Amino acid sequence: MPVVIDLHGYSEGATLHTQVSGLGAYGDTHGFITISPQGQGTPAHWNANMGTDDVALVGKILDDVEAGLCVDTDRVYVTGYSNGAFLTSVLACTYSDRIAAVAPVAGIRDVPGCTFDRPVPVVAFHGTDDTFVVFNGGVGEGAKSLPAPDGSGKTMAELGNTSAESSEIVPGSLDQTVPDNLAAWAERNGCTGGPTESKVADDVTLVRFDCRPDATTELYRVEAGGHTWPGSPAFTSIASVVGPTTMSIDATALMWEFFQSHP
Question: What are phi and psi of 20, to 5 degrees?
Fold first, then answer.
């Protein structure tokens, strides 16, 4: 069976995130295994940089899953939300020889020092009004109020962890825009030419590069969308914190369709 690693966001935790993505239940009906690891520390988070313990952890998880279950090793995929999307981007660099495709939600990154052994197809999702990971670059006001990763009880702003420079939880500079991160990924995948855009809903635009079939690089840009997982009703009750969630598309269904076409 195919495997999808589903990585939670900063301070979100695996239990809550499984309700957000719905990938566990979706996999039960669509025929894939979902693995939802729990990040380190209080609050739970991922050290999303090259060569960290969290990167090694996911590799060990894949080893264990492949040894203990009936797994199609040509169909191993990774998705993640926010800080989990940061780690997803790093894992694509580290394990490009064993991860078939990825789907970062609200956090695609251009990871410093990243090289691919083979192209890694990517489908990303991001809202233009994200107040945490700002679409046009920079740290949003939402991120400044998050608890610091050191367990001190201070906020990110109080600890001084809101700069756009590299930090424990962010690979590379947050000054980079989402379009620039996507373009860098397309270049790494060997794609040519600039992106093209097509409307898939009134509030959603699909941005695609001209790539080989095994190197597809695309982004669902959600107009006025917040720091959310498109199509997930779990975010509607906290819209005042994360912003609006589009129901015009379903990120879970779209990423699985994408994964199926990219072994």
Answer: -70, -50
**Omega of the bond prior to 43 within 30 degrees of 0, cis?**
yes
Q: Give the helix ranges, DSSP H, for 151-238.
A: 156-159, 178-188
Residue 63 makes CB contacts below 8 A (sequence gap 6+) with none
Distance separating alpha carbons of residues 229 and 21, to the nearest angstrom: 7
Mean pLDDT of the chain: 93
Instruction: Note every long-range contact of 90-94, with CB atoms under 8 Å and residues 24 or more positions apart, other chains counting.
Output: 90/48, 90/49, 90/50, 90/55, 90/114, 90/171, 91/5, 91/55, 91/58, 92/116, 92/120, 92/122, 93/50, 94/50, 94/55, 94/59
Question: What are the φ/ψ torsions at residue 44 (nearest 5 degrees)?
Answer: -65, 130
For 227-242, what is each residue's pLDDT tens digit?
Answer: 999 999 999 888 999 9
Report d(CA 3, CA 31) in Å as an integer.
9
DSSP 10: T
3-state secondary structure of 39: coil
pLDDT tens for 158-188 read 766 555 444 678 888 888 999 999 999 999 9
Query: How far apart (Å, rounded) are the C-alpha atoms in residues 222 and 25?
Result: 25
Q: How far is CA 201 from the centre of its chain?
A: 22
- Average pLDDT score over residue span 130-159: 86
